[in-house]
Each structure stands twice: as C-alpha cells, then as structure tokens.
Amino acid sequence: xxxxxxxxxxxxxxxxxxxxxxxxxxxxxxxxxxxxxxxxxxxxxxxxxxxxxxxxxxxxxxxxxxxxxxxxxxxxxxxxxxxxxxxxxxxxxxxxxxxxxxxxxxxxxxxxxxxxxxxxxxxxxxxxxxxxxxxxxxxxxxxxxxxxxxxxxxxxxxxxxxxxxxxxxxxxxxxxxxxxxxxxxxxxxxxxxx
Length: 194
What we know:
Layout: E1 5-18, E2 21-37, H1 49-70, E3 79-86, H2 92-99, H3 104-110, E4 120-124, E5 131-137, E6 148-152, E7 162-170
Parallel strand pairs: 3-4
Antiparallel strand pairs: 1-2, 2-7, 3-5, 3-7, 5-6
C-alpha cells in the first residue's frame, strides 16, 4: 500500500429506539477512518495521481472494514458514503483527488455493485473537528429513506500534514422513515437513480 497510514478507526452505530418507538431490527451504520500522511502538504503539485491511487487503495480497505464491522455479506450493504478532512497544510483538491477518480470502484466491490453515485464531502480541519459523511442508497439515489449521514471525529486527527479519510456503509436506512418515495425493496439499481 502506498498510503502512509498512522491509524485506522472503525465503529458501528446502532439505533434501537427513536422517539419512544423500538426499532427492530436496529438500524446500523459503520464508519472506517484512515489517518494518512499527506504527501503534498505545504506545496503545490500539479499531478495528484499518487493521491488518486491512495484513494483506490483506501476505498477497498475501508469499505471491507465497514462490511466486516457490520457482520454482513457485501450484498447486504444498503447505503454508502465517503469524506475527507484535510489538515491545514493541505488543500481541498487533495481531498478531491482521493475521493473522486478512483475510490468509488473498490468501494462498490466491497459492497457488491453500487449503481448510484457515492455521496461525498470534503473540508479543511484539524484535530478533534467533526467530519460529516453523507450517506445515500448504493443502488438508487431516489430512495429517500437512505438519505442520511454519520459524524466522525478523532481527537488527534488530522494533524497539519495529514488527511483523514472516511468511508461509511449501512445495512439499513434511517430509523422510522416516512417521507415517501422509492423504497429499498423496489429499487432496481439499473441507472443509479431508481
């Protein structure tokens, strides 16, 4: 692996009750975060291909960790998302290089298929700052019950010369969804929308 990884953190959030109602089965979200050295911190570099390659490596690694943390098979994943926080000596384009050209294909392999675009966010930040990872249904963007997100925060990351890369996967939508629209069971996953 070409990524210089300082740490990886993985956790699962389960919601068992919402506004006095029992959620059965509980809705579950997993998030895996890698804190890596930013090879281009503090300097302008025209060719960001090394970061794109790191994105490909991390998409599979972090996606697999999420699926394993949920204890599901890859085809049981229902939604996904990705995000990067760039330390102060980097630039937002470093996050874009990791997220957009190559991270998606290995993540889709980890969750089996994934016709829909992977929701993403990027921001500048420092240690202890919250990074929001948006979530959307992996096969059909119009499945409203899966419009969601999860926060990640590490007390020591990202440092000035680091990138904090997060991937999230769920085995369900939001608790108690009731805003209508296409359902998970009716999604076809052919065009990424429906």
